[in-house]
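Reader question, answered in our methods column.
A reader sent in the components of a multi-part assembly and asked whether the whole thing could be modeled at once rather than chain by chain. We filled in our standard form and ran it. Here is what they sent:
COMPLEX SIZE: two components
ENTRIES:
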Amino acid sequence: MNNAYNTALIRVRGLSKEYVQRSPLTRTKFTIHALKNLNLTLRRGATLAIVGESGAGKSTLVRCLALIEKPTAGEIFWNDVDLLGLKKDELFAMRHKIQIIFQDPTSALNPGMTAAEIVEEPLTIQGIGASDERRTRVLELMEQVGLPAKWAGKLPMEFSGGQRQRLAIARALALEPELLILDEALSNLDLANQEMILQLLRELQAAHGLTYVYVAHDLNMVEDVADEVAVMYEGQIVEQKYAPAIFNHAEHPYTQELLAMAPPLKSIIAARREWDCL
Amino acid sequence: METIGAISGDDCMGSVLQVRNLTIEYGVDGAEQFRAVDGVSFDVTRGEVVGLMGESGCGKSSTALGLLGLLSRRSARVSGSVVVGGKELIGVSESDLQEVRGSTISLVFQEPGISLNPVMRVGSQIAEVIHAHRSWGWKRCRAEAEGVLERMGLSPVERIYSAYPHQLSGGQRQRIALAQALCCKPAILVADEPTASLDARSQADFLALLRGLKNELQISILLISHSPELQASLADRIMVMKDGHIIEGGSIEKLYENPAHDYTRAMLRRTTRSRVGSEEADFVLQGQFAE
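And here is the structure of the entire assembly that came back:
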C-alpha cells in the first residue's frame, strides 16, 4: 500500500436514484428506489468490492460512479470536485479518469468495428496521440491482456467470450484511468485468464496507484482481490469493512446471511465428511 | 436398437450410464477440425451424483450434448458408446433418441429462460413432456404435472401452473426446467451448470432441492459445473476435465487434500479463506434456506 492509501478518492453522500416506471397493463406509475440515501468512501489506490444479491442496486451505484447514470439526489465528490455539478466539457475531461467494464462484453463492443478500432476509439475521442502513436499503443494494450497483435483486424464475433472480455479490458485501460470499475467483469473468464488479468491489474495498481471497484454477487469471488468490502442490500451499504474483518467478524445480519449462503469449499468438505459418516 | 450385453436400466452392476471412449469432433466437411472431447469413459451408478468439473472450453458441455445426441451431425462427429438403461445412444435414429430423452435421460441447462417456451403456460410445458412419453390422456398428464410442481416446492401450484415463464423468477424457472426433466422419472439427469444463472439465495435453495430429490428418488445425476463449491456440496465423486480429457477423479476430499494434477490444485485452492464454520456449510447443505 502506498502512502496515499488512506486518502479518499471518492466520497458519496446521501445518494438516491429513483426510476419511475409505468405498469404495462394498468398504466399507473410506480417508483423503484434503486439507491436510498447511500454513503460510501473509495480510498485511493485500494480495491473495494461491492457485494450483494441481484436487485440490491450494485449496478445502479457503479453506473452513477461512472457518470453514466444521473442520480436523483445526493453528492459524489472526486477529491474536492463535485462530479454531479460538472459542466459538459469538464465532464468530458473527467471520463478520462473513470472507466467501467461490464459483465457482458458482447453487448459492450460494437460488432462492426475491428478489435484495433475498438481499443483505439477512446484515444481518438479524447484526442490523444497521433494516428501512428495510437496504433502502437493499441497493439501494446492488446498484448498486455494476452491478445496477439495479429488479431487486431478481427471483429468481436470472431473472438471467444473470454477474449472479448479481455478486449473490453484493453479498451478500458487505453485512457490510463485512475478509477477502474469492474461490474462482474471477471466472472466469465476461466482461471488462467482471470489470473492473468488480476496480475496485470495488480501491477498497474502498484505502479500507478489505480483504484479499483469490483462488483460481485458472491463473496467467495472477491476474497482474493479486495482490500475492503462493502455489502449492499436494498439500495444501501449495510456494512463496509476491511476484507478480513468482513469474512471473520461480520456484524450486519445480512452480511452474515450472505456469508452463510456461500460457504468456503473447506467447510463444505468438512460438512460432507460428517454426514457421510452418519 | 443395439443392446450391449445384459445391461438393463437397473442391472446387477447398478450402472445406469456407461460412457466408453466418447469422442466429439467439431468441423465436419473441410471446416477447421477441433476435438472437444477426446476418448472419455466413465460410469454412473444408481443414486450416484457424479461431478464433471472443468473450465469453460474443456469439453464438459459438449459431453452433455453428445450424451443426449443433441449435436448436429452437420457440425459435429460423435463416436464411442453411450449406454443408458441398456440402450446404445450413439448412431441411432432421431426418433429412437426422442423416445429416450426426457424419459430415461434428461437434461437441465444453465439458462432456463432459453429452454422454456415464452408463450406457453409453464404447467402445460410439463404436461406436454408427460404426454409425449406416456399413453395417458391430457387430464391425467395435467394432474401429474401439478404433482411434480408441488414436489419442486413451487406453490401455490394453481398459480404457478398457469403462469408464463416471464412471470416467474429465475429460481422458479429453473425449478420448472427441473420439473420438465424429472416428470417422467428418468434414470439419469444431466445437469449442465444448473445454478450458474441464479443468485446466492436461489442457488442455495435449488441445491437443497436437488439434494432432497437425490435422496428421495434415488436419481442419478451427472453434474456438470466449473464450481468446486457446487461440486463439493452435491457430488459423490468428481471427474476433472481439461482439454477434452478426464485428467483425474475421486472424492472431493481426495482431490482437495491430495490432487494429482497442479490444475486440480489450482481449481480447488483458489480461496484460502480461514473463516471456519462447518455449521454454516451444514446450514446450506441441509436446506435451511429452502422454503
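What stands out: The two ends of chain B are 44 Å apart (CA to CA). The beta strands of chain B are 15-26, 34-45, 49-53, 76-84, 87-88, 105-108, 188-192, 220-224, 237-242, 245-250.
Send us your own complexes using the same form.
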